[in-house]
Write a structure and sequence with these properties.
Layout (H helix, E strand, L loop, with lengths): L1 H21 L4 H8 L3 H13 L9 H9 L2 H13 L8 H22 L14 H11 L3 E3 L3 E5 L15 E4 L8 H9 L4 E8 L6 E9 L2 H10 L2
Antiparallel strand pairs: 1-2, 2-4, 3-5, 4-5
Helix pairs in contact: 2-3, 3-5, 4-6, 5-6
Keywords: RNA-binding
Organism: Photinus pyralis
GO molecular function, one term: RNA binding
Length: 229
């Protein structure tokens, strides 16, 4: 009777494990075969199931970096990646590598400053509805990496050459929580924008306080300088 009881217990345990294994995607086995730790593979597979990332989005560089990362660090990085706004990220593999690089830098800074280092406060993001409206109105693209947010370049339907010397303007002293939804309307008052590159700080998630704006004409760039935008 005891043997039967143990057998039933073993069956119950296997039944508890089995449903979870059935929930794994077809790519989970590929992650294990690639050499990723099981916990990391499960976390990554869970991200796949959200639809924010697909296995084909990750190249060998990103997978190798995850494989070499300490398990706790990799789980932390994947959690940050999942919490990130990836709507305008075209290269998710490079973005993930950027998150890992930032995690290493923060870890090194924390080890030198001691355990009293305050946690990073999540940065206020842009108004996505306003950005979506701008992109729909202009037809421009927005490409986000951990180091910059690039709007445009070239404008839709542009058949001329790339704007030359004198068309690019450096814009400093930008509030750290200001994004394209507020910047683009200001610069559009001066002329047609070729591209806008807002430089980002991966350590804080805010902008670095400056951007580069290229206009399609020198007159527009000069107008921006005169207005001290």
């Amino acid at each position: 009777a005891m043997a039967e009881g143990n057998g039933e217990l073993g069956l119950e345990e296997s039944m508890k494990i089995e449903p979870d294994s059935e929930e794994r995607t077809e790519d989970f086995k590929k992650l294990i075969e690639y050499g990723l730790d099981e916990k990391v593979a499960i976390k990554l597979d869970d991200i796949y199931k959200t639809g924010k990332l697909a296995h084909v989005d990750l190249d060998e560089r990103a997978l190798d970096a995850l494989k070499e990362f300490p398990v706790d660090g990799a789980l932390n990085v994947l959690g940050q990646f999942l919490d990130s706004n990836l709507e305008h990220v075209s290269n998710k593999s490079a973005y993930l590598c950027g998150v890992m690089k930032t995690y290493r830098q923060k870890s090194r800074a924390g080890s030198t400053q001691g355990p009293a280092t305050p946690a990073t406060i999540p940065a206020k993001g842009p108004d996505e509805d306003k950005i979506k409206a701008i992109l729909e109105r202009t037809g421009y693209t927005l490409d986000v990496t951990t180091g910059q947010r690039k709007y445009g370049g070239p404008p839709p339907g542009w058949d001329g050459s790339t704007p030359g010397t004198g068309c690019e303007v450096f814009c400093g002293k930008i509030p750290k929580d200001m994004y394209e939804d507020e910047l683009i309307p200001l610069f559009e008052e001066c002329g047609v924008i070729w591209d806008l590159r807002l430089m980002m700080d991966p350590m804080t998630g805010t902008n670095r306080g400056y951007a580069f704006v290229t206009f399609t004409t020198r007159d527009a760039a000069q107008s921006a300088v005169q207005k001290r935008l």
